Amino acid sequence: MSASGFRPVFHPAGHDHALRHALQDLRAGRWHEMARLLQETADTGGWDGWTRRTQILATVAAGTDVVHAWRAERPGSTAAEVMLGRVAVERAVRAHRAGHGHAPALRAEASTACREAAACAPADPVPWIGLLALAALDAGHQPAEHRVPPPVPGLPPAPWALLAEAERRDPYNREAHHRMLQFLYGRGEGPLSEAVTYAHWAASVAPRGSALHALPLHVRVERYRRDRGHERALDLHWVAEDAVREARRAMDAWFLFCAVPEASQLDLNHLAHALSGALLFTDAARVFEALGPYYTAVPWAHRTPRPADRALAEEVFLRARARSLTG
What we know:
This protein is mainly α and 327 residues long. The chain folds into 2 domains: 1-188, Serine Threonine Protein Phosphatase 5, Tetratricopeptide repeat, CATH 1.25.40; 211-327, no CATH class. The chain is built from 17 helices and no strands. Helix 1 (17-27) packs antiparallel against helix 2 (32-44), helix 4 (66-73) packs antiparallel against helix 5 (78-98) and helix 5 packs parallel to helix 7. The mean pLDDT is 93.
């Protein structure tokens, strides 16, 4: 806790109180509030909230059988079918990261679930986003579907057709582009030049107010994570001319036009991190104020000697916040 008594809070729902209630219901083994929330989300007609809420719900539902119970009781529910795909992908991703022997079987199961959801909900981008997430687990990138020629020169072969399917349903979908970024990260521990090119290309074609303007901030953190050495003056990474330019662009082209309560907490934390690192304290203060009490361990954890230590990440966040609000 800081000297002022402020303490940051990590909660996946952030400012989304309706999602918070659904998560509480889900943790108690009930699906009704989740179903009600997703019906309400679908009725608003926007894919941003649908994509974000289904992703966060799946992170909790993946450890339960609640979605299966939902579909068993409501076999005609399209939302339940989409959530089954979400849960299957989340389980496959976790198994892959943990190196479990059954990870390939879970990937195949998740792919089937996503394609069934795509057939059930043909207008929904989420099943295609799920297939993009699974593509990022394919270390060898063997399937032809994952080696499609790029839409513009300078980018590598990748699952562009899957991205196009998601984009056809929801242009500039935030999660779809982040899933593609994860695919490019997985191409090796190299200098990330492909990911840098991709992030800047995606941001350059995105409209004002799009979260894709924050993509370069994520890549810069990943570059820092891979290149850092504790003996170096690492703070110089964030005041370089291109770093300042990326931070300003995300502020001016995205933050000033977005619906902040509905924005990704990760994006907001990356922007606050980039602006404070670039010594743009007035702008950073606006982002910290928009965040309220909520924070995410990444990117702050990568500014510590032990990224797995959440307490250290919290300290870095608090120092940056205090310096921005008083600077």
